[in-house]
């Protein structure tokens, strides 16, 4: 899974270049496996970058520090300042990248199990918790609060304070792998988790992580979930051909979108909420008008497109993920080819 910070300018896309590489230090017992990069995410304000390093480690890096490390390394080499640079774990604690006063600090987090999903969430104090019956809360989230949710192989979700690196909450109701996580964009700290236990669960972190609702309807593993920009609709996809749309005010199923010929593995709304893009193992990305349940566009990784009976991604064309650029006019997709 890949991620853009929200501050990306559409005019910069044509100028994209490789500026650096983040590497994990290699332990003697860790040569062959365990260092896979499963997922990455940018904080909503672009201040932090989170990187799942395989096994159980997540690294939280202040993004300005990361960029400065690349530029410093380029200057040291004295050759081509635009050539790609590498930042290893050892580099991150070197003398050239010591945190300045008041600068956010880097953290390495041991989550206790393999990390499958990452999501940042930020709080808006005036956005009250939906739980109105409890007056006392263990946590009081301020406007400057930034949280990281990690979905684990054992079904747990751990919530971390990004600035301190401390564990705040341990959510334990899922019974299988937590495959994906998404926070409501409205600052309410409502978190939705998608799991291989065939359910989606809604958590209210402003109510100390209370589980608000279990959304049932998927017959198999749930791979991905995504909020609409106004937080009113949730899309979820999984091991099946249907795309599920949920009303997040009533926690009810709105409709299923039919059109894919194989498992649907990724989904995302456009920044204005008008469009929905979904990616499937049938080698296609579909762009929907989800309000009318209409297919607007099909983007294929295989031409001619396979007939439904053969739409299994046989020729290394399984589409793994899809995402909108913040300008709303560009879509990126990743495939096995």
From TrEMBL:
The keyword NAD does not apply. SMART domains: WD40 (SM00320). Keywords: Repeat, Ubl conjugation pathway, WD repeat. SUPFAM superfamilies: WD40 repeat-like (SSF50978). The keyword Isomerase does not apply. CDD domains: WD40 (cd00200). WD repeats lie at residues 141-170, 171-213, 215-256, 257-289. It comes from the Eukaryota. Gene3D superfamilies: YVTN repeat-like/Quinoprotein amine dehydrogenase. InterPro entries: WD40/YVTN_repeat-like_dom_sf, WD40_PAC1, WD40_repeat_CS, WD40_repeat_dom_sf, WD40_rpt, WSB_SOCS-box_domain. PANTHER family: WD REPEAT AND SOCS BOX-CONTAINING PROTEIN 1, WD40 REPEAT PROTEIN. This is WD repeat and SOCS box-containing protein 1. It comes from Ameca splendens.
């Amino acid at each position: 899974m890949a991620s853009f910070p929200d501050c990306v300018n559409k005019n910069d896309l044509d100028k994209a270049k490789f500026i650096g590489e983040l590497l994990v230090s290699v332990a003697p017992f860790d040569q062959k496996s365990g260092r896979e990069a499963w997922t990455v995410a940018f904080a909503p304000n672009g201040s932090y970058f989170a990187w799942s390093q395989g096994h159980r480690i997540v690294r939280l890096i202040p993004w300005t520090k990361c960029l400065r490390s690349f530029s410093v390394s380029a200057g040291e080499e004295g050759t081509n300042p635009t050539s790609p640079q590498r930042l290893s774990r050892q580099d991150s604690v070197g003398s050239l990248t010591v945190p300045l006063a008041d600068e956010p600090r880097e953290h390495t987090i041991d989550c206790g199990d393999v990390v499958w999903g990452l999501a940042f969430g930020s709080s808006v104090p005036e956005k009250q918790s939906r739980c109105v019956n409890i007056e006392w809360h263990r946590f009081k989230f301020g406007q400057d609060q930034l949280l990281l949710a990690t979905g684990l192989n054992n079904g747990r979700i751990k919530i971390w304070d990004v600035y301190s690196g401390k564990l705040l909450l341990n959510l334990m109701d899922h019974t299988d792998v937590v495959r994906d996580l998404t926070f409501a964009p409205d600052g309410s700290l409502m978190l939705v988790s998608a799991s291989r236990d065939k359910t989606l669960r809604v958590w209210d972190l402003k109510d100390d992580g209370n589980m608000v609702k279990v959304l049932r309807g998927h017959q198999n593993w749930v791979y991905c979930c995504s909020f609409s920009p106004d937080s009113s609709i949730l899309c979820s996809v999984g091991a099946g051909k249907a795309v599920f749309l949920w009303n997040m005010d009533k926690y009810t199923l709105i409709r299923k979108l039919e059109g894919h010929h194989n498992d649907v593995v990724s989904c995302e709304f456009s920044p204005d909420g008008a469009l929905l893009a979904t990616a499937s193992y049938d080698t296609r990305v579909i762009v929907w008008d989800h309000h009318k349940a209409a297919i607007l566009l099909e983007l294929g990784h295989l031409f001619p497109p396979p007939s439904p009976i053969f739409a299994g991604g046989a020729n290394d064309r399984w589409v793994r993920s899809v995402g909108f650029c913040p300008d709303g006019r560009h879509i990126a997709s990743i495939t096995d080819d």
